[in-house]
Amino acid sequence: MTILYLLIGCSVLLALIFLSLFFWAQRSGQNDDLHTPSMRILLDDEKEVEK
Amino acid sequence: MQPENFYYDNKIVRNFGIATIVWGIIGMTVGLLAAIQLFSPGANLHNQYTTFGRIRPLHTNAVIFAFVGNAIFMGVYYSLQRLLKARMFSDALSKIHFWGWQLIILSAVATLPLGFTTSKEYAELEWPIDIAITLIWVVFGINMFGTIIKRRERHLYVAIWFYIATFVTIAVLHIVNSIELPISAFKSYMVYAGVQDALVQWWYGHNAVAFFLTTPYLGMMYYFLPKMANRPVYSYKLSILHFWTLIFIYIWAGPHHLLYTTLPGWAQSLGVAFSIMLIAPSWGGMINGLLTLRGAWDKVRDDVILKFMVVGLTAYGMATFEGPILSLKQVNSIAHFSDWIVAHVHVGALGWNGFLTFAMLYWLIPRIYKTELFSKKLASFHFWAGTLGIIFYAVPMYWAGFTQSLMLKEFTADGMLKYPNFLETTLQIIPMHVMRSVGGGIYLLGVIVMAYNLFRTMKQGSLVANEAAQAMPLAPIHTVVKESTWHRMLERKPIQMMVLALVVILIGSFIELMPTLTISSNIPTIASVKPYTPLELQGRDLYIREGCSNCHSQTVRPFRSETERYGEYSKAGEFVYDHPFLWGSKRTGPDLAREGSKYGNAWHYNHMMDPRLMSPGSIMPAYEWMLTQKLDTTTTAAKINAMRTLGVPYAPGYDKIANRDLDKQAQKIVENLQADHIKVKKDKEIIAIIAYLQRLGMDIKANKTAN
Q1: Is the pTM of this model over 0.80?
Q2: pLDDT single digits (tens) B187-205
Q3: Helix H or strand E encompassing B25
Q4: Nearest CB to A34; choose among B240, B465, B498
Q5: Which chain A residue lies closest to B154 (C-alpha atoms)?
Q6: Is residue B490 over pLDDT 70?
Q7: Exposure of A17 by Cβ count < 10 A (0-12 exposed, 13-18 middle, 19+ buried)?
Q8: What is the DSSP string of B173-187?
Q9: In 3-state terms, what secondary structure has residue B470?
Q10: Are A14 and B240 a contacting pair at CB < 8 A?
Q11: What is the ipTM of this complex?
């Protein structure tokens, strides 16, 4: 079952990537406001049509 | 600061949308053709290229990577631009992505019916296409991250997090599960063998479900559902929370596909534990979606698009509850290898992926064409056809799965198998398979009606290829972080944080690795297990080409009902030379792990020529072409060499004399067949497949005799 070294390595690598993304998100204030973002996406003001 | 004017690229969204519709119809039609063959084998059109074993992978690849794949790109390209207030990073990359992906699908359509397959589920495509997929995926990634970098909205909405997770994980999974050693332009061997290959395959397979069919759709749900209902998502906090939980838990659930196999028990249990944990984040998403509609259920009554979303989310909830339940060993012992699993995946695929895709198409096409939907009535018809289609599909399949599994496990009062002939259980569920095709047919009809409706919509409007938009550029950030909690303080010290995280992960890894470290190898070698002879190796490749493993497993689970029926349960050491493993995941026919010497050569010859000669009522296709087609022996040397490179102990120089041994063994089988008045030349494919089938399980039998 030496394949586990590869799989665990890959899984841990993925986890590390996601972990660092998570810390970046926390540090850069992505998760500071947990209310407005859900409202903001609804406010797409329609612009006049151009082709 | 001045607001900036720019344009959203709607043309690329439209293109992916059309591709979604077209490939959806094709993929589902192929699925229907495959389903019909399960009660009427003549529906293979008496043609090897349209026989179940070859078109089942075509169906799964077409609906997953062509239908769902294009729908993902449609939804991502539409929502990403609007969420980030920016046009896609590069129009050229968008185009390369679109056409590259369509070419990959076309190459799948061309190669799978020809029998070019790795046999690994949802990763059947051969190595050159694997490389193309990698390249196009990278193009998609550059385009997405490029857009993120040049965004005009500082905050990344939760949908984008789901898209990022999709990109990163699929890239890793695809590469790890595609490490093959090519022996020719369209043939390769997996570098992993047996139980290790099985673990990699289902590590990939389960996460393909997670990160191709789930995370991108959750992301799109978080964008499109609030837009459709015109109200914010129920809890943004919950969306963030369940996102991070989902992606950290999903990765180790794969082993639940291998319960009761020769995979080490602790790995199986680990997979089950992670699977059970998954209920929480999965249901977090479903509940968040459904509760978004709180107070808006009057809209659901009138709006067919929201109806699709509600049924889609409900199907997601059902499938993600059922999944963990199926991963429990007791439930799995009944459900695995049966039609239950087929029902389970189709609730997810038809309900969750299908219905969300339809809702997005109905919502988005009129918008980018600046018009109304052509017919609400037809859309409503589609909704009911789709819903009834799912019910008529899933219910008979649950019924069939239960019935067949229980029959296979039933003993008489004397302790004998009640249905010793596998075929009896097959015949019992044929009506259910007919019903399933009807359900699938109704669902497909709905999709065709949708296609008509949407193309009429496109005709009556005109595409706004470049939609004008305006937004302020990003202002530089000033973050003030309060150092009130220990966690906040830690976050200001990235290095220390990294080290701490690494320690935590290393402890986890060490616990997981302990069992493998303490035992030199978890795969006990069995002295009597020998490499395949050249003829058997060629036969094995024919078995792969014809997709036999789509219907026949090669692993006997340690249940009395199975050891009585098939023979001794499988051992890890039996599969050490199997590049790739061929355990399969479905028993439409009986297990073949102990097939060797069960029947004579003549039985196999007649059975392959016409299965109904030997087993009246059998639904196995006739493989007449194997009787007439010549075996290609020019590849023997390359195959032996490749296997030796992968660690199979063929003697040095054996590749040069391999064909001589192949001839000798073929001659023996021909002579044996002659004794039964069957005249066949020794260079036909049928000889090789007989040789392979007669080898299955013989190593263990030899071991027994020796002891």
Answers
A1: yes
A2: 999 988 888 899 989 999 9
A3: helix B11-37
A4: B240
A5: A30
A6: no
A7: middle
A8: HHHHTT-EEEEETTE
A9: strand
A10: no
A11: 0.81
